[in-house]
Amino acid sequence: MKKVMTWLSVFSLFLVNITGVRAQEITTKQNYLLLGIDSGTYAGRSDNFSGHLADAIMIVTVDPANSSVTIATMPRDGYAEIPGYGSNKVNSAFAYGGKDLMIQTLSNMFGVNFDHYVVANMDGFIEIIDALNGVDVVPPQTFSMYEKLFFEEGVPKHLDGEHALGYARERYQTGSDYSRQGRMREMVTNIFKQVLQMDDIESYRAIFDNRPHYIETDFTFDEIKALHAQFKGKEITFNEHQLQGVSEVDDVLGWLEIITPESLAELQSIVQ
User: Fold this and answer.
1) Mean predicted confidence (pLDDT) in 197-211
2) Which residue in 117, 110, 39, 36 sits closest to 80, CA to CA?
3) 45 CB contacts (<8 Å, ≥6 apart)?
4) Under DSSP, is residue 91 helix (H, G, I), strand (E, B) or coil?
5) Cα separation of 229 and 198, whole Å?
6) Handedness of CA 106, 137, 148, 174 (dihedral sign)
7) What is the pLDDT of residues 141-185, one digit of tens each?
8) How many CA atoms lie within 13 A of 199 on its CB side?
9) Cβ atoms within 10 Å, residue 253
10) Which fold has domain 7-137+195-271?
11) pTM, entire model
């Protein structure tokens, strides 16, 4: 049974597996969809993410004209029109129709076609973060995870893979899915910056060569090499965006986030 790694570790891999050979550069804005599927890692969960919900939804917009990267997150309980299934929580699109239906749902919502996608579950996250020698964060709140991982508000912390997984996953002590999305964006941003500073990256080639055991993506190795070669060493502006909703409780669907028109329009202006 195929194993896949988390969306976060996939994009670590996305920037790591480079030889430095310059290939074709991108000249227009591109959008990449990252989906984290809630399977793997915990006891009783399957390595196969078929039929599971999308636990994390991220859009990475690379704008070469402005040398910027925007990392946007969408609430997993965001209310959306799912083609063929009507209005529902957006994370249900993956359970109904896999990555294709999720891509169609979000493409319709934002008015864009995604240039590439990465779909992964939580399995392999610890291994990849450890391979990168960890990641630095500044916890916005004090909380613990798994009853053994502890984070103190405002105190910088270098996380190994196990702590990084706990940091990215917690949403009960810290208030909501929004707080978790913020920490996910922080980690992705810091990993991007860390990898773009790397000189010796050839040693990570084996990870990409073994990607069928970990990830589903339509990126090719040459495309990854080209992106790293194009942006490595440049002054890149990293932006974060949170798609905002208003909380409501539906008798059938339960807790929902009704995305505000203003927030939707703002993200559309970023990705289009």
Assistant:
1) 70
2) 110
3) 38, 39
4) coil
5) 11
6) negative
7) 898 887 778 899 999 999 998 888 788 888 778 778 899 899 989
8) 0
9) 14
10) Aminopeptidase (3.40.630)
11) 0.84
Specify the DSSP element, H or E, that contains 234.
none
Q: What is the pLDDT of residues 1-49, one digit of tens each?
A: 444 444 555 555 555 443 334 457 899 999 999 988 766 554 444 455 6
CB distance 85 to 96 below 8 Å: yes
Least confident of 3-7, 240-244, 254-258: 3-7
Q: Which two tokens stand for residue 223?
A: 């495309």
Distance from C-alpha of 270 to C-alpha of 72, rounded to nearest angstrom: 9
The DSSP output letter for 42 is: S
Q: Where are the domains of the chain?
A: 7-137+195-271
Which bin fits 47, alpha (ψ -120 to 50), beta or left (φ > 0)?
alpha
pLDDT confidence of residue 53: 84
Least confident of 78-82, 102-106, 186-190: 186-190
Query: Residue 112 above 80 pLDDT?
Result: yes
Give the sign of the dihedral formed by CA 111, CA 117, CA 120, CA 126: negative
Q: Give the phi and the psi of residue 137 in degrees, each rounded to 5.
A: -140, 165
Helix, strand and coil content of the chain, in percent to the nearest 5, comes to: 35, 25, 40
Distance CA 48, CA 40 (A): 8
